[in-house]
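Good morning,

Attaching, inline, the backbone tokens for the sequence recovery test we're adding to the shared suite. The designed sequence is right after.
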């Protein structure tokens, strides 16, 4: 990806425009208060200063009102400033002109706009003007009023100020590039084995730190491995190592400090470290000898990684010049990398948790749906085997019911498999008819167990997503099957109602109830480990609520499911 550069100069233009107005106004005021200079061409000088003040006010108004940042306009206004500078120098006393101080303003403007390059070219132009005026046809050098020492001092002054501002511009440009790179971290996180992705992130860190080689070492809190990622311009290499292969990696007392050294292989290396107490120097062997030998370390800048799930070090190698500023920058980069590694690890754990939740949901669906239906089909086939000789008509009817049941479950299983596929590969399926499926469920229970069973929707069901309707169906299915199989109920009744956000389900039976008496909510049932485990887990996974009122003459289950949660 092409590296973006920082181009916003609006604040600098605000400062330049304001400074131009102030400088022009004070020059005009100063000339008015001291009429001895200019001694020649006074009217022209006053006219130029007055026009320049008007020009400055107009440019300031445009800049503050519109905030434009046009590169060509910057060049034009800079050229106008240089031209005014040259004219004022010519109209006064040349190199000894009091307007010479205006040169500093022009240099500062060039530094803000174009950094060291602008400073260099502006200084060259201003110095050329100064020298030309010194050798102007009147030959100011031979003028008795010409002060050669002042001329030499001003030339030296020009050179020193231009050098300082040029260095400031180069430093500011470097800082802007670093800030731009810090804001443009690769969006990818490290996979299980970093490879190219890790190469991109670590290569970006190497560019920020200006390091030919970078080594990243980290350990995860739940894994007994030392992860090692080494980056060079030729590529990157990722390895797993035993945690003790490099010992403690850094010397005692430097575990939580950023530090650098130019002689890592020495037992008495000078180490500059940034600790809680401030910047300090000490002499020691900062890195484990095996690490120094393995990577042929001479100079190194080490920053600790201190994440929530990981710990380790970022080591920038082979830097020829290191300063305390590199410790601060290394700490920022290390913090960003630690955050990315934490993010990758948490994302991996979330993916594993989501996969486990999906497997649990699938197990519940198979248990509550297909498995229960196959058990019912088995009971009906057992009935068929008894009736096939004595009542062939009833046997055929039961066989047809089993066929319908298997066809229905086959359709559900096909739909379930289709829903598990990625969206691109899914086939369009018919709408899940919740009311029809619940009626079929009640009829199947009546036929299989020969008991009274009814399912009633008191309010029309809203248009539900397929996943929502399936979850409601399975909850009602599990509640009814539990009652008929374990409570020995002879009458079952399920009632369902809906509002804008909730599905309210009530299931009652006349069986023997649960192994407890009284009314318990979901938290109490979980703490006491009472009630139907599978149903309780399903409702809990759906962020629903379950209340059971159990007695000797039956039980009542009140279930509330959030439609918004179910529908995502």
């Amino acid at each position: 990806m092409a590296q973006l550069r920082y181009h916003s100069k609006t604040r600098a233009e605000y400062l330049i425009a304001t400074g131009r107005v102030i400088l022009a106004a004070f020059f005009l005021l100063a000339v008015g208060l001291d009429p001895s200079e200019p001694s020649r061409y006074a009217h022209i000088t006053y006219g130029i200063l007055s026009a320049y003040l008007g020009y400055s006010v107009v440019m300031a108004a445009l800049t503050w009102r519109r905030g434009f940042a046009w590169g060509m306009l910057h060049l034009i206004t800079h050229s106008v400033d240089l031209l005014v500078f040259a004219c004022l120098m010519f109209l006064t006393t040349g190199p000894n002109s009091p307007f010479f101080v205006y040169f500093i303003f022009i240099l500062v403007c060039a530094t803000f706009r174009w950094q060291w390059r602008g400073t260099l070219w502006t200084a060259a132009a201003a110095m050329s003007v100064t020298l030309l005026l010194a050798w102007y046809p009147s030959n100011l050098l031979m003028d008795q009023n010409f002060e050669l020492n002042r001329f030499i001092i001003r030339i030296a002054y020009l050179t020193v100020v231009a050098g300082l501002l040029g260095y400031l511009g180069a430093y500011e440009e470097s800082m802007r590039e670093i800030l731009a790179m810090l804001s443009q971290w690769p969006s990818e996180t490290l996979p299980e084995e970093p490879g190219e992705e890790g190469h991109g992130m670590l290569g970006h860190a190497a560019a920020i730190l200006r390091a030919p080689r970078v080594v990243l070492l980290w350990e995860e809190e739940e894994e007994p491995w030392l992860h090692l990622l080494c980056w060079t311009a030729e590529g990157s290499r990722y390895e797993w190592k035993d945690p003790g292969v490099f010992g403690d990696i850094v010397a005692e007392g430097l575990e939580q400090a950023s530090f650098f050294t130019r002689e890592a292989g020495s037992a008495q290396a000078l180490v500059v470290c940034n600790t809680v107490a401030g910047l300090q120097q000490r002499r020691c062997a900062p890195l484990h000898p095996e690490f120094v030998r393995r990577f042929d370390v001479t100079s190194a800048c080490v920053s600790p990684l201190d994440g929530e799930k990981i710990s380790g070090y970022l080591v920038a190698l082979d830097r020829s010049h290191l300063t305390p500023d590199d410790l601060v920058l290394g700490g920022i980069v290390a913090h960003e990398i630690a955050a990315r590694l934490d993010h990758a690890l948490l994302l991996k754990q979330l993916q594993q948790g989501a996969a486990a939740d999906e497997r649990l949901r699938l197990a519940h669906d198979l248990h509550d749906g297909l498995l229960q239906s196959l058990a019912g089909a088995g009971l009906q086939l057992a009935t068929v085997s008894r009736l096939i000789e004595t009542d062939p008509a009833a046997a055929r009817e039961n066989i047809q019911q089993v066929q319908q049941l298997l066809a229905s479950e086959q359709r559900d299983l096909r739909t379930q498999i289709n829903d598990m596929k990625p969206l691109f590969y899914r086939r369009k399926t018919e709408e899940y008819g919740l009311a029809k499926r619940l009626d079929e469920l009640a009829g199947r229970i009546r036929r299989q167990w020969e008991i009274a069973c009814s399912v009633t929707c008191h309010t029309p069901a809203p248009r539900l997503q397929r996943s929502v309707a399936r979850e409601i169906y399975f909850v009602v299915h599990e509640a009814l099957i539990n009652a008929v199989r374990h409570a020995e109920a002879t009458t079952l009744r399920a009632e369902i109602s809906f509002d804008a956000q909730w599905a309210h389900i009530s299931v009652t039976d006349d069986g023997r109830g649960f192994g407890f008496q009284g009314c318990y909510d979901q938290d109490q049932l979980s703490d006491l480990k009472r009630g139907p485990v599978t149903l309780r887990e399903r409702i809990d996974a759906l962020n629903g609520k379950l209340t059971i009122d159990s007695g000797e003459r039956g039980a009542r289950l009140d279930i509330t499911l959030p439609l918004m949660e179910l529908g995502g």
